[in-house]
Write a structure and sequence with these properties.
Helices cover 22% and strands 34% of the residues. It has 12 helices and 45 strands. The strands form 10 sheets. Strands 8, 9, 10, 11, 12, 16 and 17 form a 7-stranded mixed beta sheet that branches. Strands 13-14-15-18-23-22 form a 6-stranded mixed beta sheet. The structure holds (dicuprio-$l^{3}-sulfanyl)-sulfanyl-copper (RUQ) and dinuclear copper ion. The site of (dicuprio-$l^{3}-sulfanyl)-sulfanyl-copper has 11 residues, from strand 4, strand 25 and strand 29.
Length: 761
């Protein structure tokens, strides 16, 4: 109450201020006109980020069926990027250059390109149980795959296909030092892709959990060091890794321990009836350290070349135990201290809190109430349970607060979030959200040190919420302030891409991406690109039936600009962006070809086409990179077989005279005077204290060096009275001057905005 009072005093002061400030409208006018309450203003003040401002957290959202990842800032809820993962995305060149096609090809299944994914759960790599901001993993439910995204450039670098499963859901979840990425099967099927009739469901259909070994130094999953534990066909669901006291263990739900097989067309009740018939399913408890030892000891069966710990071995070695969980469970979440496991049952009204200590004691004492039909030991519910807490209808997922013992659980049916104490088993607060909440995310809310502050409700529907955009609605991510005792709704973010499931959020300062690549990098491998060339070394190599172009891109031209090939040739462009300036990206597209490259500074990418049809194919840069971006163009000329060129060359375009040359020369000398003045200003300041400026100055210096080279060519041609060449090179000299001046002006603005001091005359 007190804080609310304080807030409204502050707001009144603010409104007062608004009344005296020199605006056309007062704040009160705007509130009235837009029908805003003081509460709205407070929410706005807590989320609004003025121009140039940064967010405290970054959220990585699953992109659902888009097969991508969505990145947005918290609390501003501004979308910053879509990361292409399982689906081609032309802006990033993903699926349109050869380097990224190779990544997508890793995700082929049964010889088929799979050009989409049903992404559900992103996970950031962890060090000591905290997200470290280095890598992001995400799963594909439909085509059992895991992708690895490098957060130094936000690019997908690896896709692995699960060699034994037919679908999955309980991935990607990482162990506390990213030793493994966990992926659990969903719909049971014979392991390895064999056929078996449904009448052999109990005997031949199986679930499983795969532990993908991750090599942090290389940033890659290592399939040869990965293994799967075979499981009964219980429809395994979500997973979570143990931490601290429960490090070395992991937990996976299941929702159809009934092993029901539907078949409406045969007069049988559908899956949904049979899979919810019993009051409980099974929580699977894994000792993954023990499983790792069993795998390393070679006690595995190979299926499709992949190591599988069979059910018999798992039972004999004591790797898996089961405990009952009510009812049609979904989320399983381990508390920050690793002591408790919170499970939501979709058809239960309460959340179940399991005690790891009790589970461990039961396993150590072999205190089991029986075995399942596959020989896995079952721990009695009462021997594992800490508390059951009535929360409301449809508890699903849980996230933890920075405050001790505080957890937030989504209530799907109630469309609410419950804030509760899992140590004491008490509900503390509830907030209604928009329909219907699935997952929720708190800041680093799955780590050993949650950051609290904000919670986001990831709602499935957006009925009545936004301007209508047709029958397919966006989803609605609602930002909630959890810093106080009561949860407060702050903001609605419509998500316009797929149905996101889970989101993971990290302190923004832990993400330190590159500004530019090391010259000539293949961004998809992270290594030096063998086909990169430096400016001046560009070339066109012709072999029978094959033309290879080694090109560079810099404001505002490609080198080379004209490429002549013959009908039927295979043409490959390896293009390196030779810029160093921040954000100076070039694109590369060729008319009528399925090609678009994204060339960030320093990157080398490859476009490959078959020149099937003779003709003229303009190519150009697809990023507005400078004032002369439209002129960043070229021609791919595909000549008919045996074509004889008889037209005179050198007659294309306009003819220049000495007068044209003199005019351009004069302009250039004047431009140089402007540049000199800007340089004088910059060097008179403490510009070296600003790294951004230092980088820009370096770039401007480069441009002036190029200007000098072009001037030399103009002078040489003028000496030979070749006014055509002299005028054109004088024009190019001027282009470089303009680019240098442009950067100089950016520097000047930056210095003025950042309070640079004049230190010299
Ligand atoms: S799902 S709404 Cu994590 Cu795939 Cu729960
Ligand atoms: Cu380069 Cu536009």
């Amino acid at each position: 109450m007190k804080s609310l009072f304080k807030a409204s005093v502050a707001l009144t002061a603010l409104i007062g201020l608004g009344a005296t400030a020199a605006y056309a409208e007062t704040l009160q006018d705007v509130m009235k006109r837009r029908n805003l309450t003081e509460k709205d203003l407070m929410a706005a003040a807590k989320t609004y980020t003025p121009t140039g401002g940064r967010d405290e957290f970054l959220a990585f959202s699953s992109g659902g069926q888009s097969g991508q990842v969505i990145v947005y800032g918290v609390p501003s809820m501004r979308i910053l990027k879509y990361i292409a993962v399982f689906t081609p995305e032309p802006w990033q060149g993903y699926g349109f250059d050869e380097e990224s096609k190779a990544v997508l090809a890793q995700g082929r299944m049964n010889g088929k390109d799979i050009n989409w994914g049903d992404t559900h759960h992103p996970a950031i790599s962890e060090t000591n149980g905290e997200p470290d901001g280095k890598f992001l993993f995400i799963n594909d439910k439909n085509n059992p795959r895991i992708a690895v995204i490098n957060l130094h450039d936000f690019e997908t670098q690896q896709i692995v296909v699960n060699p034994v499963m037919a679908s999955e859901h309980g991935g990607a979840f990482v162990t506390p030092n990213s030793e493994y990425v966990i992926e659990a099967a969903q719909y049971a099927a014979p392991l390895g892709g064999e056929y078996a009739p449904l009448s052999e469901f109990n005997e031949k259909y199986r679930g499983g959990v795969t532990y993908w070994k991750f090599n942090k130094e290389k940033g890659r999953i290592v399939p040869e060091e990965s293994f799967t534990i075979e499981l009964p066909p219980y429809s395994q669901d979500l997973s979570d890794a143990g931490k601290l006291v429960s490090d070395g263990w992991s937990f996976t739900n299941s929702f159809c321990a009934e092993r029901y097989v539907g078949g409406i067309e045969k007069g049988r009740p559908p899956f949904e009836a049979g899979c919810s018939a019993n009051d409980v399913d099974y929580l699977h408890i894994f000792n993954w350290k023990k499983a790792e030892a069993v795998f390393k000891a070679g006690k595995v069966k190979k299926i499709n070349g992949h190591a599988v710990i069979t059910l018999e071995t798992a039972a004999a070695e004591g790797i898996v135990a089961l405990v009952a969980e009510p009812k049609s469970p979904h989320g399983v979440d381990v508390s920050p201290d690793g002591k408790f496991i919170v499970v939501g049952g979709k058809l239960d009204t309460q959340a179940s809190v399991y005690s790891f200590e009790k589970i461990k004691a039961a396993i150590d004492a072999k205190n089991f109430s029986g075995k399942d039909p596959y020989g896995l030991p079952i721990i009695a519910l009462k021997d594992a349970l800490h508390k059951q807490v009535p929360l409301g209808l449809g508890p699903l997922h849980s996230q933890f607060d920075s405050k001790n013992c505080i957890v937030y659980t989504s209530l799907y049916v109630d469309s609410q979030v419950a804030k509760w104490d899992y140590c004491e088993g008490k509900v503390l607060d509830k907030i209604s959200v928009h329909y219907n909440i699935g997952h929720l995310v708190a800041m680093e809310g799955e780590s050993v040190k949650p950051k609290g502050k904000y919670l986001i409700a990831l709602n499935k529907l957006a009925i009545d919420r936004f301007n209508p955009v047709g029958p397919l609605h966006p989803q609605n991510h609602q930002l909630i302030d959890i810093s106080g005792d009561k949860m407060e709704m702050l903001y609605d973010l419509p998500i316009p891409l797929g149905e996101p499931h889970y989101v993971t959020a990290i302190s923004a300062d832990k993400i330190q991406p590159l500004v530019r690549y090391k010259y000539g990098t293949d961004s998809r491998t992270g290594e030096a690109h063998k086909m990169a060339v430096r400016p001046g070394a560009e070339k066109i190599v012709k072999e029978p039936g094959k033309v290879t172009v080694f090109a560079t891109a810099i404001r505002s031209h490609f080198t080379p600009e004209i490429v002549e090939v013959e009908e039927g040739d295979e043409v490959t462009f390896h293009i390196t962006n030779s810029e160093r300036a921040q954000d100076e990206v070039h694109g590369f597209a060729i008319s009528g070809q399925d090609i678009n490259l994204s060339l960030e500074p320093g990157k080398t990418a490859t476009a490959k086409i078959k020149a099937e049809k003779a003709g003229v194919y303009p190519y150009y840069c697809t990023e507005f990179c400078s004032a002369l971006h439209l002129e960043m163009q070229g021609y791919l000329l595909v000549k008919p077989k045996g074509y004889k060129d008889t037209a005179a060359t050198g007659k294309e375009g306009q003819v220049y005279t000495k007068a044209d040359f003199d005019k351009q020369y004069k302009t250039n000398i004047e431009t140089q005077a402007v540049i000199d003045a800007v340089v004088k200003y910059i060097t008179s300041t403490n510009f070296k204290d600003f790294p951004t400026v230092v980088a820009l100055v370096e770039d401007a210096t480069d441009q002036l060096k190029f200007a000098g080279e072009a001037k030399q060519k103009a002078d040489d041609a003028a000496a030979k009275q070749d006014w055509q060449q002299a005028t054109l090179w004088a024009g190019q000299w001027w282009q470089y001057q303009v680019k240098a001046a442009d950067i100089g002006l950016r520097v000047k603005t930056y210095l003025e905005e950042h309070g640079a001091k004049v230190v010299a005359k």
